[in-house]
Hints:
Chains A, B: One of its GO terms (molecular function) is prephenate dehydrogenase (NADP+) activity. Two copies of one chain form a homodimer. By secondary structure, chain A is α/β, with parallel strands linked by helices. Helix content of chain A is about 55%, strand content about 15%. Chain A has 13 helices and eight strands. An eight-stranded mixed β-sheet of chain A has the order 3-2-1-4-5-6-7-8, sandwiched between helices. In chain A, helix 2 links the parallel strand 2 (about 25-30) and strand 3 (about 50). In chain A, helix 11 packs antiparallel against helix 12 (about 260-275). Chains A and B meet through helix 7, helix 8, helix 9, helix 10 and helix 11 of A and helix 7, helix 8, helix 9, helix 10 and helix 11 of B.
Amino acid sequence: MKITLIGVGLIGGSMALKLKAKGLASYVYGVDQNQNHLEEAKSLGIIDEISTLENAVLNSDLIIIAIPVDATRKILSNVLDLVDDRKTVMDAGSTKEGIVNSIEDHPHRNRFVAFHPMWGTENSGPKSAISDSFSGRAGVICDRENSADDALETVQKVADALDMHLIYMKAADHDVHTAYISHISHITSYALANTVLEKEREEDTIFQLASSGFSSTVRLAKSHPEMWVPIFKQNKENVLDVLNEHISQLRKFKSALEKDNDELLEELIRNANKIRGILGEK
Amino acid sequence: MKITLIGVGLIGGSMALKLKAKGLASYVYGVDQNQNHLEEAKSLGIIDEISTLENAVLNSDLIIIAIPVDATRKILSNVLDLVDDRKTVMDAGSTKEGIVNSIEDHPHRNRFVAFHPMWGTENSGPKSAISDSFSGRAGVICDRENSADDALETVQKVADALDMHLIYMKAADHDVHTAYISHISHITSYALANTVLEKEREEDTIFQLASSGFSSTVRLAKSHPEMWVPIFKQNKENVLDVLNEHISQLRKFKSALEKDNDELLEELIRNANKIRGILGEK
């Protein structure tokens, strides 16, 4: 099938590479505000043609929107204006409720499938795209009852080609769970980076002493604000809720240390250790 | 040379494997409170012989102490009682000031080299040991002026065999820097795990939605309390200082979100992004 890729960066680029490799995508039109990214994506084989939005959608069976969630909200209604009952539109955004609410009354609402692939890195742009990125990861489809069966089937084919397994959720539930499991990790990591940059004025010392542990915890702090400010804003209430809990958890460590309460310190750590079993490790 | 390994777990085991592979260690005596670990270490080729502390030290040129920092403080003076001027003692602990202070008046103080290899994982025990773990990492030697030249040369040979480069610091400075760069990362990660476990009661959802980003940020939360409670306690003042800063950084995110202050949110993220350059990446 022919595909329009709106946003030719890390996520869209990775999807297109794999869908082409698997033969599901016969031709990919690239649409992006960033002309350099479009040219990079073309030279990397992510897209076959740089196109306008209208021309691309007109000639495509599937439209994949892989841009920041605020930009998705702005463009989605226009894209749905351009489609007919043979076309499917899917997104890849990290928040869902605001996006589905923005088109709930659109006459082509049922051509849209709200999708969130549970993969990403701290990098961005077409050069960061990796074909096998999504293998073994979950893809979440939200509010499936509002999408046409054949549109859902198309997205199922995409997920199969990406080697992902599908999970179904209400958009509102998705946003609660991703605040807990994904969004707070980013704030934690940003705040850790800012903490270290504030306290450790000797940058060379950071570089020299940084262990694999520090690098791992601070990895997400390299993620760009263009993607993450809109996510935090669109999921504000859920993110604030979990951020309050996180500050309260850090205060427990502080109190345990201040009061030399070894038992509490050990209990806090043993509780945290449970994450090993939950993540499916030994 | 013959080596005594006190603590045959992740760090000691990884060191012994590499020192044997490089031919620097001709024979390794293993000393540990955990009999299972001793037997595992022997069957994994980490040690050649299970021994008492006295017998091991008597027959060794180098004694490596790789146990939790509270246990190191308890045992170090006894080990120095057993050595003569031809033997070298080194540790691998993550805090340094308490350890060097505990033996500052010992008649064999100059046989001890305070060492900290900047590597570790969230795992423990001899089965976690990896021969090439330390390659390219920094090894910190503290208060070198209190160690004999030949003892420092022995540790230099060890660092060379492990493919590490040495950095020299005062013990007090080491503890400040590691609080900033290493110890706070662990508290951050523990607190993140506890946050998610508190908010997300559906463990299966954590497992299903956990992305590589979450796994990365929460990795250190799998680290055992036996190692980390003593580190936090021995570095209490520095850790509390950086923990206060970290809570204050999280409050800035909270305030920016609550007040819809997009500019501050973006500024906080852009500042955090600087860590990419400091860690030596593109």
